[in-house]
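Researcher: Here's a chain I'd like modeled. Treat it as a single chain, no partners, no ligands.
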Amino acid sequence: MEFLSINEVLENGTTHGAIATAIEKNGQIYGWDRFGRFRKHLLSDKNHAQVFEEVFNALAAHYAWSSEPLPQMERLPEHLVFGEFPRLCEFGWPDSEIIDFSEFENAGQITPVHLKNSLKAADNNLRIIGALRECLVGQARNVFNDQCKKFNDANLIDFLESHYTGYSGLGKRNLEGKFAAAKRLLDNS
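Model: Modeled as a single isolated chain. Structure tokens:
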């Protein structure tokens, strides 16, 4: 079963508010309980209240961190790596039940809020540009040309994912989303 974590939803550009509203409106989220069992957690079930509190606290902490006006560190602070943010990778939705988060953007707000990309999102975009540059004119050019005999999005994404493992923003889902958005933008320009 494929699983889309809250962290991946954030990397795809969905706002923290939209995710929180979607969880509240749908009343459910999937993840692991304290015994390591994968299950559906229901907001209406009092036994799952602690799970939702943990998810909302982690989401709020990530929002505060990503909204910080100071330049973000390449790695998360140690107290957060082992604290709040890993929870965002443990909860989400199976591919069969993925939510359309666009309907929850600006939900309940009196006036739309136009937020600039967070510094973290901007850094991720620059990493993508840097990795693509390396494929075209940098040190990775020869390796890329040797491995990718057929130039298409799928081969490029596979190459980037394998050569930049662990880099924020260079995961398969994020690259697929960014490539599709970039293509739409160029096609409509």
